[in-house]
Amino acid sequence: MEIREVFARNLRAARRAKGLSQEELAHRAGIDRTYISSLERCVYHASIDVLDRLASALDLDAAELLKRPAAESPADLEDPEV
What is the pTM of this model? Predict the structure, then answer.
């Protein structure tokens, strides 16, 4: 999974876990609601500044939005025979 897909999934999951609509998250982060939708669908790529604003609005560390699922960590993708 590409990092932007990881970000999109984590963004949507965090937003839903906080019980926020796209509109409310956008308001808290100071960005347009349609941009949130586009990020969650991997249409646009977030800048590091937007990533930080979204993480702050969700009360998360920015790294949490980029964290890969455990089954897809880079160590799991390496060949164990090497």
Answer: 0.82
